[in-house]
Amino acid sequence: MNIDNIGVVIATRSIALLGDTQAVTVTIGTPQAFSDGKDYYCPYQIIGIGDERIRYASGVDTIQALFLALKKIGSVLHSSDPARAGSLTWLGNSDLGFPMA
Fold first, then answer.
1. Which residues have C-beta within 8 Å of that of residue 37, sequence separation ≥ 6?
2. Distance between CA atoms of 101 and 33, rounded to whole angstroms?
3. Which of 30, 70, 89, 97 is the most buried (most CB within 10 A)?
4. CA-CA distance, 86 to 63, in Å (whole number)?
5. What pLDDT score was predicted for residue 78?
6. pTM of the full predicted structure?
């Protein structure tokens, strides 16, 4: 499934990228039912590193979809080149506040 719109934004986080004037921004959209109505997906986008595509995580309900989106975001951020170089910080800390898979 391709998503070209994040929908209604429910959460955002700004993460400092040391040595750059622009921050990395994480945006999470409202979890929604798939068109077949069986499961749910939660869209998210990371702007400032990577290809900035809108992605999603899916689950059997909205809570699981949201939780898995948070874990996917954490994995992308923590495995990024800036994070491995120690250049990503949130509130002055290398803990970016997202769970890891």
1. none
2. 23
3. 70
4. 31
5. 94
6. 0.93
3 state SS for 72-95: HHHHHHHCCHHHHCCCEEECCECC
Q: How many Cβ atoms are within 10 Å of 87's Cβ, its own excluded?
A: 18
Given this model, what pLDDT does residue 77 score? 95
| HEC per residue, the chain | CCCCCCCCEEEEEEEEECCCCCCEEEEEECCEECCCCCCEEEEEEEECCCCCCEEEEEECCHHHHHHHHHHHHHHHHHCCHHHHCCCEEECCECCCCCCCC
Domain-wise residue ranges, the chain: 9-89
CA max distance for the chain: 45
CB contact at 8 A, 57 and 42: yes
Contacting residues for 59 by C-beta, under 8 A, at least 6 apart: 31, 39, 40, 41, 42, 65, 66, 67, 68
